[in-house]
């Protein structure tokens, strides 16, 4: 019996990642919580699927994440909360714990997670996606939603196109999305 088999029946969402950060196993609770079917995400980098951020919008999930670094060094990661993104683009706060398994020089990490809930058991309120954006980033997202291109936004806001591109990258990171279109769709929802 391997780690994937043990986690398959867990009530919490659970997935296993290999040394390269790719997802090796994804249980049914993970499917229910985040909306991704195992067949859609196996082999993909977990940082791409979860797009996790901390409370101030900094990326938690990235190729060289703290959890994998600690696991390779033989240390345990503390339980942590992060804001992830569901398959439909909805932000959701998760409480995450980790387990590490080492076999034959190979490090596997299992993440167990649950949606953070209120005392009454209902879902915790998720802040509006725009609540993490600065005033200037909100101006940029409004122009994006109106169909403005980089140069047009720069002229309207009196800044350089490079500054606009930097704002767009910041928006994408804070919202945990990968394109301008995804950012606009998330904010509109």
How would you describe what is shown here?
The chain is an alpha+beta fold and 189 residues long. It folds into 2 domains: 3-115, PAS domain (Beta-Lactamase), CATH 3.30.450; 129-188, Winged helix-like DNA-binding domain superfamily/Winged helix DNA-binding domain (Arc Repressor Mutant, subunit A, Orthogonal Bundle), CATH 1.10.10. It is 38% helix and 20% strand. It contains 9 helices and 5 strands. The chain has helices spanning 3-8, 28-34, 38-41, 46-50, 66-72, 135-145, 150-157, 161-175, 180-188, and strands at residues 13-17, 23-26, 80-85, 91-103, 106-115. Strands 2-1-5-4-3 form a 5-stranded antiparallel sheet. A hairpin with a 5-residue loop joins strand 1 and strand 2 (23-26). Helix 7 (150-157) packs across helix 8 (161-175). The longest helix is centred in the C-terminal third of the chain and has 15 residues, at 161-175. The protein is elongated and about 55 Å long.
Q: What characterizes the major β-sheet?
A: 5 strands, antiparallel
Overall mean pLDDT stands at 82
**What's the number of extended β-strand segments?**
5
Question: Any low-confidence stretches, pLDDT <50, length ≥5?
Answer: 117-123
| Gross CATH architecture of the largest domain | 2-Layer Sandwich
- Placed side by side, the strands forming the largest sheet appear as 2-1-5-4-3
Shape: elongated
Distance between the termini: 43 Å
What class, by secondary structure content? alpha+beta
Broad CATH class of the largest domain: Alpha Beta
| CATH fold call of the largest domain | Beta-Lactamase
Beta-strand proportion = 15-25%
Separate helix tally: 9
């Amino acid at each position: 019996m391997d780690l994937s088999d043990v986690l398959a029946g867990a009530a919490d969402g659970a997935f296993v990642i290999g040394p390269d950060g790719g997802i090796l196993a994804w249980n049914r609770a993970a499917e229910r919580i985040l909306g991704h079917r195992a067949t859609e995400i196996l082999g993909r980098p977990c940082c791409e699927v979860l797009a996790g951020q901390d409370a101030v919008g900094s990326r938690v999930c990235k190729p060289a994440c703290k959890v994998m670094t600690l696991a390779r060094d033989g240390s345990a990661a503390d339980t942590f909360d992060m804001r992830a993104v569901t398959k439909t683009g909805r932000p959701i706060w998760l409480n995450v714990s980790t387990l590490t398994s080492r076999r034959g020089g190979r490090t596997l990490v299992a993440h167990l997670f649950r949606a953070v809930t209120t005392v009454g058991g209902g879902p915790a309120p998720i802040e509006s996606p725009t609540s993490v954006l600065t005033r200037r980033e909100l101006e940029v997202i409004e122009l994006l939603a109106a169909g403005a291109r980089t140069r047009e936004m720069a002229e309207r806001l009196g800044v350089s196109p490079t500054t606009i591109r930097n704002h767009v990258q910041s928006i994408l990171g804070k919202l945990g999305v990968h394109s301008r279109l995804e950012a606009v769709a998330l904010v509109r929802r």
